[in-house]
Structure formats: C-alpha cells, structure tokens
Amino acid sequence: MKRSIPLSVLLFFIVCCLPPAQAVDLYKTKYKCLDSKGNERWRATTEVVFTVDEILFDIFELIEEGSGSYGGFAEEISWKTNLEFREEKDSVKPVKMEKQIFDKSGKLIVRDFQEFDFSKNTVIFKRENLVTGKKEEKTFTFEGDIVNRPLLAVYIQKFLVKGETQKSVNMITDKPRLYRMNLTMEGEEKIEIDGQSVKAYKVQIAPNLGVFDVFRAILPKMHMWYLANSRFDWLKYAGPESTIGSPKVVIIKRK
User: Fold this and answer.
1) What are 220-235's pLDDT values in tens digits?
2) Between 227 and which of 112, 120, 128, 233 could a Cys-Cys bridge form, CB atoms 3.0 to 4.6 Å apart?
3) Residue 217 has what pLDDT?
4) Within 10 Å of residue 203's Cβ, how many Cβ atoms?
C-alpha cells in the first residue's frame, strides 16, 4: 500500500518537508513561475508518494506536472517528472528519474532519464528527442552528495533541519552538466506570500568554481526562502530558471 507525504517544490529547485511517512496523507503543492517583469511563465504541481519501507531508509516517488513557457522551447509545453529518491537519517539521495516533455497538442517530444549508482559514484544521463530522432548519453562521476533539479530544495530543507549554515553538494542539471554548489544560510527576513508577510529563512545557492571562484560575483545569484518554523516549508525561489545563464525568474508557492 502506498503512503504519501507533503512536499513543496520548485521547477529548477523545488522543495518539501518530509514528516514521518507513517503519519501523513496525500498532499499536493502548487507553485508558479514569474519572469523579471512579473508575467507568469508556467504553473506546476508536485506530490510525493511513499512507496517502499526499507530497513535503512525509505523510498519515495516525487511526481511533478507542469505547463507553460519553459526553457528554450519556442512554444508552450507540458511535462511530467517521476523521481524516485530515498530518505536516509541525515539526507536524501536520488535513485532514478524520468522526465517526459509534450508539445502543446499533447504529443511526447522529449524523454530524459537519470540513473544514480552510489556504489560507483556515477550518474548516467540519457535524452531522446522523438522529433529529430537524436539520442544523447553522458556519464558523470562525483564525490560526496548529489542531487538533481527536483531534489535540490528537498536537500536544502534537510540542511536547515540539521541546523547547518554552510555545505556543498553536486547537482546535475537538464543541460546536462554537473556543478558543485555551495549552500549558505544567510539569515531571517520577512517576505510576502499570497499577500501576507511571513518570516522566512534565506538560503543562497552558488556554484563552486574552484580556482575561478573569484568570478562568482558576476554570476546571477540564486536564493530560496523557507518558512521560519520547525518544518521549514519552502516558500520562494529567485534566480536562473534552469541552468546558469538561463532567464532570471521568481518561483513562488501558491494556494
């Protein structure tokens, strides 16, 4: 039997709270993306379903569905993402992901796959373009923790729950590229959500450029805000829509 937990997420970096799996019901989170002028680009929903109760960790499935103007597509699209991940004591780890992208008529045009192997510290990315017939496959090697776009904000929520203020994590993007990202808790501030002022924790997400880190100041800043309570519910994201260099957007929780 499946069980569900609530999750608040983000399209580039989408977020959740993970309460005890045995004590929750099905829950959907809604959010929208606005461009730099405040115009709506797309809307999406996410739910997380508890699927397997393992001895050392729980397995969950994150299901995201959205539609609108996204990425480099000339016309509006819709998409569905199915991400399987596991929750361990102090972290979350992706297992595998499939993302399907549809044109405005509902025809499947692109299919992405990601598969993570923690015994080898590798992630395999596959993309199939059903319009052109082009196929792409890349393998990345990583050290330490790794997330993908849907799971990053879940990872940050765990980061806040543990009371951490700085941390680094690998992130694979839809490009595909593998980046090392630095997380920094910047403090508490008030933001407006659905016309109400709420206290929130602000977290910066910045690429770790190694010896080229001096150039970080010229890159677009990325931030996420979480409700300043014991659950750390995700509220808002501001920064590039997908990869570094993509349009700057604001993604915000909605009723």
Assistant:
1) 779 999 999 888 999 9
2) 233
3) 57
4) 24
Pairing label, strands 77-87, 58-68:
antiparallel
Contact between 201 and 228 under an 8 Å Cβ cutoff? The reply is yes
pLDDT band with cut points at 50, 70 and 90 for residue 20: very low
Q: Name the one residue in this structure whose structure tokens are 């829509």.
A: 241
Q: Which two tokens stand for residue 223?
A: 């931030």
| 130-145 per-residue burial string, b: 16 or more CB within 10 A, e: under 16 | eeeeeeeeeebebeeb
Could you count the other beta carbons within 10 Å of the beta carbon of residue 212?
A: 9
Side chain identity, residue 102: F
DSSP conformation letters of 161-178: HTT-SEEEEEEE-SSS-E
Q: In degrees rounded to 5, what are phi and psi of residue 209?
A: -100, 10
Amino acid at 107: K
Amino acid at 61: E
Distance in angstroms (rounded) separating the CA atoms of residues 13 and 216: 20
